[in-house]
Amino acid sequence: MMIRSENISLRAPEPTDIDLLYQWENNPEMWQVSNTLTPYSRFAIEQYVLNSANDLYSDRQLRLMIDLHKVDPPKTVGCIDLFDLDPGHRRAGIGIMIVSGERGKGYASEALDMVITHAFGPLGLHQLFANVIAGNENSLELFKRKHFALIGVKKEWLRNDNSWTDEYMLQLINQKD
């Protein structure tokens, strides 16, 4: 699967992405936003990439790599995930990660537009939800610009060292469904 826009392409992870995914998944700075508690082995990431059908309905998740396709060779700047698919209620969570040196350039916004269109079109989802840690104002504003409604605050939801942090829950309902 590949979805293209003016500046970026969304594609399935390839074996050549294993080292990059290993680096991202094992970055402790990302753990709080991804609810990761322990490191992933390279083998586990390799098995995910090699064995995933990359089908939302069979895997209950879909990871797409975000590539800049106007550069040669294309450059991977992040990933966007649909996760926790509930096919009966036709909803899934959505999360996005852009590498630190590429943030603020509109890639997350463009990728989010593409995945929303794909989720509400070919995938037939009725709603998407996002969880954003308090303090991540850039992500919160991004989802709000895409018409996600803030539907709640999970108080002291995430533990970081010896403190607790709230998490916002946002929701986007397919108005054409």
Task: Please describe what this structure looks like.
It is a single chain. The chain is an alpha+beta fold. It has a single domain (2-173), classed as 3-Layer(aba) Sandwich (Aminopeptidase), CATH 3.40.630. Helix content is 29%, strand content 36%. It contains six helices and eight strands; from the N terminus they run ββααααβββαβαββ. It has an eight-stranded mixed beta sheet. Helix 1 (18-25) packs across helix 3 (42-51). The longest helix is centred in the middle third of the chain and has 14 residues, at 107-120. It is globular, with a radius of gyration of 16 Å. The two termini are 24 Å apart. The mean pLDDT is 89.
Q: How many helices does DSSP assign? A: 6
Secondary-structure arrangement, i.e. CATH architecture: 3-Layer(aba) Sandwich
CATH topological fold name: Aminopeptidase
Q: Please state the structural category.
A: alpha+beta
| Shape assignment | globular
Number of discrete domains: 1
Element-by-element helix/strand order: EEHHHHEEEHEHEE
Q: Measure the end-to-end span.
A: 24 Å
As a percent range, the share of helical residues equals 25-40%
Q: What is the number of beta strands?
A: 8
CATH class: Alpha Beta
What is the residue-mean pLDDT, rounded to a whole number? 89
The biggest sheet, with number of strands, parallel, antiparallel or mixed sense and barrel status, is: 8 strands, mixed
